[in-house]
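pinned: reference chain
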Amino acid sequence: MRRFWIFNHYATTPATGPMLRHYYFADCLREKDIETTVFAANELHQTGGMVDTHGKPYLRTEEGGVPFVFVKTSKYEGNGISRVKNMLSFFFGLLRISKGYAKQYGKPDVIMGSSAHPLTSIAGILMARRFHVPAIVEVRDLWPEAIFSFGKVKMDSLIGRCLSAGEKWMYVHADAIVFTKEGDVDHIKEMGWDTAHGGKIDLKKCHYVNNGVKLNEYDLSMEKDVLPDEDLEDNSFKVVYTGTIRPVNNVGNILDTAHLLKGRKDIKFLIFGGGNQLELLKKRVEDEHLENVVFKGFVEKKYIPYILSRSSINILNYSQAQYNWSRGNSSNKLFEYMASGKPIISTVKMGYCILEKYQCGLSLEECTPQALAEMIQKIHDMPEDTYVQMAKNAREGAKDFDFSVLTERLYQVIESVKKS
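pinned: its structure tokens
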């Protein structure tokens, strides 16, 4: 059996959190006779919890037959210096344990380092050199572009130039690059790093493997994990949002939209999720007498498939200004929405638009309550056969993003670096 190592600071098992991309890859790759071990930090980013390594540098576990190595890292809160220290401790932890781990469990044949932050991918390249094996760099979020877009660091500053130089080094020295958004390869062209612009990066080594959904688990959950809720069972036209309720998610825009549609008595907005704006927005609903809006609060993730299956429209509610959407979308939520077999509205117009490609939803040119209200009414009022076809397209499109399909794409990347 060939051995494949994946480094991902924030990866989890089903028992420890929701970041399951690499767990699913590892599970599916076993059918290809590839033993995949995922290395992650023991401080759990999504839940704030931690996996106890019992004072040792790492803890090796297996869940569902997938080996997981939780590397001991420093504690952190927020996005300040303690988080930077946590990133560094994961980086150095990987360097420290890899040789001993390989001696005990076997040397890898290929290593993949996955962002978000680039230190993990750099560790992958350095360890691949140590073991004389190919290195794959996976880019799930373009750093430092994401930092530049939030205005935290200027691109032309000293720090910005250093970060860009590190990113370029990473791409140059990778044997293959995997992007999770179809248009992310455009970034290399825009920076002039590809061979066509005189750079060193051959775009033939760039690949696209999006995020997705495990449809068999999704369908099983939809049938098994039923959430009793009278609002989900009535005959209203249900506009559903699921996700965090924070300023960046701009859920207030949905309330503004609901205000415009107060006269459409059969249209109801159901908002599932928690966050630091929940109580504030619930008060708005009360003060403004928005009887067509119901906040449901936090629900366990296992109920999401059933909730989405009971909707009429599912809303992808994003901020237009705080992210570069021209490169596409790799949001897990998008593929969960598609799997539900219901039409989708996105509050931003994206490049490489999956909704447009699969004809399974509509996107706003401008993120305003008026535009969103008009789009909701358009789907509400469309002929039944048109609505049914859009819903069917969503479910059919989700099949292209099932993890069995995505794993086949990753497998081809692994094969390409083994042959080179």
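why pinned: The chain has 16 helices and 14 strands. The mean pLDDT is 93.
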